[in-house]
Amino acid sequence: MTKSTSLWRQFDYILLAGALILTFFGVLMIRSATLGAIDPDLISRVADQLRFAILGFVVLLALAALDYRLLAGVHTWLYLIMIGLLFLVTLFGVEGDGGAKSWLNLGIRIQPSEIAKLIIIITLAVFLARNYERVGEIPVIIRSLIHIGIPALLIFIQPDLGMTIVFAVLWIVMIWASGLRLKHIAIGLLALVIAAPVAVPVAWSQMEGYQRQRILSFIAPESDRDAYYNILQARISIGSGGLTGKGYAQGPQNTGRFLRVRHTDFIFSVISEEFGFVGGVVTIALLGAVIWRILRGARRASDPLGALICYGVAAFIFFQTFVSIGMNLSLMPVTGLTLPFISSGGTSLLSTLAGIGLAESVIMRGRKTA
Fold it and tell me: Domain limits at 162?
């Protein structure tokens, strides 16, 4: 048996199956959410998602075949490419549906912040793995903050608050996973509380009007009737689905166009209306299974670098799932974060599948026993 054959025997086919099912289900839900649309952008959503899905699975298999440890040798170049792409957005960014200039038009529209999300997992994992024994030292913590803070700032000024928060979550999860002690986390939280009176007004002043309104409408829903309308329609959609739903492409909230941005921000409401409580729970369970298999890969990883990559991938899938579903249930403010695998968004789907490929690379080269 060759070494290559032995590696593929370690491939996590359960994780791959979960990603396949969720991606295919996402395409079906985007079709339902855009059925009968006359807007050319909406009409093309299903075809675009299919193209990115095919490309995404090719990238997934390619990254799985690539030894993730080789990426450590080019992490500086990856970081520079990421900063370059994000800087290009500040100069030539194209405005998207949510109002942020987060896209580049290179013949096809790409969202560099989604690519950056994956690159920062690799580069931060390399940095933390190389400083594994010194992660509790203040200089190392500060350097890790600078490492992630530069791209996070470039994303914030697009402005994309949701993805900026994802970067913050990645830093917290990965530095905790690398061994940061609880007392240091407590000191960091205390520092944030102390800095809040200055930091919050500064951050608030840099937000766009629609971002402030999203937060205000979450705190006081009826302060903006237009924003509240969609939040209310999302709740109605979820509630009207009952136990088993109204059937695929049969939900009146969806087909009647009462629910806006139903193919992106509020796609979970479409799922719940058409497949009911059962469909919502199954969707969450599938996403949970994917996260669990990635965390299992982190536990079986052969080195800190592999474990940290898996923790980073699991962290962004979990956080985006939590926020996206929370938005639909009125438990979280609307941030524009996609529901992984399912929401319409080619670059988002591509980065998620690439993340699965990185996790598979770690799993294939991990310990053979738990």
Answer: 22-36+43-195+210-364
